[in-house]
């Protein structure tokens, strides 16, 4: 399997939400755990424009980022969080909030098995920041604007570069979400 992979916006695999309330498009999925669930997953969900409830993912950590034009409110029993576009918010996957969008929008999700994986998501400017992937883990760049290159691959808005266990410089003038996923050594 190539260590640098380009996933174009139109090539993502559509999968129904676990609770049947919507659809997500998978960008990349890690190996399965003993329970059959992936150790990590990167995807883009269509949130639509009407309120919905997220699926619960026990034992998973989620980093949620609005990547559409409209902000959303995430509502739990004890609190509500307003989420602006391109501002990552982390929470436990078992906490399935109600999502109230200000209008039709999309969300970028990174979910990891909380027992064996860690993830970070940050907004970066590849042209201004030096971005290098690591030899131990997964690095992905979801492009908002501009373009980014890694090896022989060039990503444009809506595309995602996924690099597994290889040190590569991400080059270009892209701005977007940088994901870093690391697995504990006990996962193999």
TrEMBL record:
This is HutD family protein. It comes from the Bacteria. Pfam families: HutD. InterPro entries: RmlC-like_jellyroll, RmlC_Cupin_sf, Uncharacterised_HutD/Ves. It comes from Rhodococcus gannanensis.
